[in-house]
């Protein structure tokens, strides 16, 4: 499998509008971050994890071929606002969207034209599937097991796919969910910034401690604000097994 980080930024992206800090004015490409999303490709399947407002820009460099599934972690705008831009891929047939019941219900309310009984011409063709934590699903020959993490007080989904676990927007995780991370070799997890605790996101030190707790062979951090610091400087602070991801990074799993 091959995982491409399409975006590694938080809800506002980096640079942050109106900010003149050293990160937002940096000319180093890893310091420019679109909203958080990733593309997982196998020999037969192409799976998008989250579909935020930058999806169109993120997918343009790729070959135009089917998106077999979209896995949604939760309903927040920076993770779902690009779903309408999936419509070009509907020439290959309806696109399968997988989400927990709360996210699925919210999508039906925020994008009713996609789920009406009678669709008008040109509307995205979406097959919306409700999924639950701990109930595996199959996308072609790929097995995906959702599990639950807490985004503040909001339960959201992480995904276990083979030896890969993908988590974003986590603040905490229940002890019982750790069983779904046993044997993970490649971990992706969020780290919002370095200082000033946030009510619903981990800080950098939290993410590093979590990576060490999971014991993955390698961990890639994502979902950063500009307060994460310069990519080069912050990278130098991390253990050898933990790296800051950046937009366009490709990891073989």
Describe the structure.
There is one protein chain. This protein has 253 residues and is α/β, with parallel strands linked by helices. The protein has helices spanning 55-59, 77-80, 101-110, 204-214, 231-235; strands at 2-7, 37-41, 46-49, 69-71, 95-99, 126-130, 137-139, 142-151, 154-161, 164-166, 186-190, 218-222, 242-244, 250-252. It has a seven-stranded mixed beta sheet. The relative contact order is 0.18.
- Total strands: the figure is 14
Distance between the termini: 5 Å
Helix content: 10-25%
Global morphology: globular
Q: Indicate the mean pLDDT.
A: 97
Q: How many helices in DSSP terms?
A: 5
Structural Rg: 17 Å
Strand arrangement, largest sheet? 6-5-4-3-2-1-14
Question: How are the SSEs ordered, and which strands pair?
Answer:
Elements: E1 2-7, E2 37-41, E3 46-49, H1 55-59, E4 69-71, H2 77-80, E5 95-99, H3 101-110, E6 126-130, E7 137-139, E8 142-151, E9 154-161, E10 164-166, E11 186-190, H4 204-214, E12 218-222, H5 231-235, E13 242-244, E14 250-252
Parallel strand pairs: 3-4, 4-5, 5-6, 10-11, 11-12, 12-13
Antiparallel strand pairs: 1-2, 1-14, 2-3, 7-8, 8-9, 9-10
Briefly characterize the structure.
Helix content is 14%, strand content 27%.
Keywords:
253 residues, 7-stranded mixed beta sheet, alpha/beta, 5 helices
């Amino acid at each position: 499998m091959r995982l491409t980080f399409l975006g590694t930024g938080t809800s506002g992206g980096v640079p942050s509008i109106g900010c003149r800090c050293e990160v937002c004015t940096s000319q180093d490409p890893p310091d420019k971050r679109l909203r958080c999303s990733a593309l997982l490709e196998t020999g037969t399947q192409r799976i998008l994890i989250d579909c935020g407002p930058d999806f169109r820009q993120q997918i343009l460099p790729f070959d135009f071929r089917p998106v077999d599934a979209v896995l949604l972690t939760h309903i927040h705008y920076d993770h779902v606002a690009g779903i309408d831009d999936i419509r070009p891929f509907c020439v290959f047939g309806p696109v399968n969207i997988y989400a927990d019941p709360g996210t699925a219900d919210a999508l039906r309310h925020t994008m009713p034209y996609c789920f009406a009984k009678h669709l008008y011409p040109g509307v995205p063709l979406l097959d919306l599937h409700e999924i639950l934590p701990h109930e595996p699903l199959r996308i072609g020959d790929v097995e995906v097991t959702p599990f639950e993490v807490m985004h503040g007080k909001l339960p959201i989904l992480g995904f276990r796919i083979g030896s890969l676990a993908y988590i974003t927007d986590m603040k905490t995780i229940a002890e019982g969910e750790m069983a779904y991370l046993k044997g993970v070799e490649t971990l992706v997890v969020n780290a919002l910034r370095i200082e000033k605790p946030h009510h619903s996101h981990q800080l950098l030190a939290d993410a590093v401690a979590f990576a060490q707790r999971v014991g993955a062979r390698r961990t890639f951090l994502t979902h950063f604000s500009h307060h994460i610091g310069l990519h080069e400087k912050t990278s130098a602070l991390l253990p050898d097994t933990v790296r800051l991801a950046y937009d366009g990074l490709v990891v073989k799993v």
